[in-house]
Amino acid sequence: MKIYNTLTKQKDDFKPINPPLVTFYACGPTVYDFFHIGNGRTFIMTDVVRRYLIYKGFKVKFAMNLTDVDDKIIKKANSEGKSASDVSKKYSDEFFKDLEALKIRKADFYPRATEHIIEITNMISKLESNGIAYNVNGDVFFEVNKFDNYGKLSGKNLDELEIGARVEINDSKKNSLDFALWKKAKEGEPYWESPWGKGRPGWHIECSAMSTKHLGETIDIHAGGNDLIFPHHENEIAQSECSSGKEFVKYWIHFGFLNIKEEKMSKSLGNFYTARDILKKYSAEAIRMLFCQTHYRGPMNFSFELLDASEKGLAKLQNIVDMIISNKDSADEKINSEFDFAKYYRNFEEAMDDDFNTPQAVAVIFDFVKDYNKFIVDNNNVSKAFWQGGYDFLYRTALEVLGIIDLGVNEISDNTKLTNELINLLLEIRAKLKAEKKYLLSDEIRNRLGEIGVSVKDTKDGSTFRIN
RNA sequence: GGCGCUGUACCCAAGCGGCUUAAGGGGAAGGUCUGCAAAACCUUUAUUCAUCGGUUCGAAUCCGAUCGGCGCCUCCA
Fold first, then answer.
1. Which of A84, A164, A362, A429 is the most exposed place for a label (fewest CB within 10 A)?
2. Which ipTM score applies to this complex?
3. Residue pair A241/A217 in contact by the 8 Å Cβ criterion
């Protein structure tokens, strides 16, 4: 299995430090607002990466941080006359709601900056005693010149950065690229006590401290959006490696941006849609499908036309899923199927093993569906094993890894079990009506079911239904 | 100025040296099946991969130049 590693700028063989364990950290949101669908792409693709690692048999320990104290939160709190913690509480709650709606699996940990002040100040103290951090009247900075490898991730070098500098001038820093580890509290800002006085953590240090605490000094994978490569991830490396003396991360994964009309979707440009707005009109599966149809590293365009197209493509998958679910418990065992399921697993894995090539993987699933349908058309009577095999394949790939179909919808709780039985009862009666050519009544049943959200389709093997 | 990404059909998008005279999805056109809906199935829709050169037995894939588009270097997924 190969993963493109930003650090080496090539696809590296994936060899975790302590297999089957994989330690995986992803940069999460700053909780000051709803997240937009561009952020959603990163969260969803991170989820797909994690799910595939699980599919491959790894035991993944996954943490995603929440930045719950920073300038944007404080600003929002001030403008709304609330406390910073009220703001971060509100938007972290909303964050979790959106994740769930997008069918993203919960992380093992969601560490928050404000809950790790001790780990953070300890790390800063260590950097200070190593002579790498310096205190200027309560602000503590990281001295980039003290870390020889500074720039190894982003491919930048210090001299050029200083020349082209668009960085803000700050006379108190030794080098304009030095970054804050600890920020002295200004009047009215939230603060914590520290060896340097009242203040709060700088942005980058929380990830170093929390990653180390929950996953160890050297972790396997660290992921985030492209725009975090510099300075955020570069700074994380500097802090962590100067503090532990060990390599911080083996594999760095970065996601491409979501563009809208050829421009990066971003809060500051105002050209964004929140994830929850999109979810009002489109299914999580359609959104995930859209993202899976482009490779995670490249940029991708967003538009409602593309989402419509994904939703339509999805219907093709969902139709076969409905047919499988309707048949897998009732088909007879007489005819042996010779459908080569292994081929599709192989192709799926081959695609995903190559740096998570989800567009290819989706293509494999569509190939499968086409061939599977054809098999049904070509063979009058297929076996139970055939239905079960199809169920298993789609369950393991399209549902468990990519999350682009909804297999369980017709068979979840006891409550839906009863509903299903009632619908099946209606459909049995309807089948009798059809046999007697009483189409007026049978059509009425279908229409009325449609009105209450149950779509019915007739096939040569009987009717299938789906609860919308 | 530095670093990086990108240009494949009507749209989206894989492929990154021979398996490919280019996957998959959407769209469009025709057909089969069918009480009707729907689905499914079968055809068709890029001799061509921004342009021009070069390397090679062989290039969409490697190299060079040219012309576009985008991002990072400041908060940003």
1. A164
2. 0.95
3. no
CATH numeric code, A2-281? 3.40.50.620
Residue nearest to nucleotide B40 (CA to C1'): A373
Cα A162-A163-A168 angle, rounded to 5 deg: 55
Give the CA A41 to C1' B57 distance in Å: 45
Pick out the nucleotide with least CA–C1' distance to A262.
B70
Ranges in chain A annotated CATH 3.40.50.620: 2-281
Is the CATH number 3.20.20.70 carried by domain A303-467? Answer: no
| Digit-coded pLDDT (tens) for A401-441 | 999 998 765 444 556 778 888 888 999 999 999 989 999 99
Look at residue A171 in the predicted model and tell me its pLDDT.
Answer: 63
Nucleotide closest to residue A156 (CA–C1') = B3
Distance from C-alpha of A25 to C-alpha of A41, rounded to nearest angstrom:
17
Q: Residue A331: what pLDDT?
A: 60
Smallest CA–C1' separation from A224, nucleotide: B77
Q: Does the pLDDT of residue A355 top 90, yes or no?
A: yes
Sign of CA dihedral A140, A145, A147, A150: positive
| Distance from residue A313's CA to nucleotide B30's C1', rounded to whole Å | 22
CB A271 within 8 A of CB A261: yes
Contact A245, A63 (CB under 8 A): no
Strand A21-26: give its sheet, edge to edge.
A59-64, A21-26, A219-225, A249-255
Judged against a pLDDT cut of 80, whether residue A289 lies above it is answered with yes
Rama region for A453: left / alpha / beta (φ>0; ψ in -120 to 50; rest): left
Kindly state the average pLDDT of the residues A168-179. Answer: 77
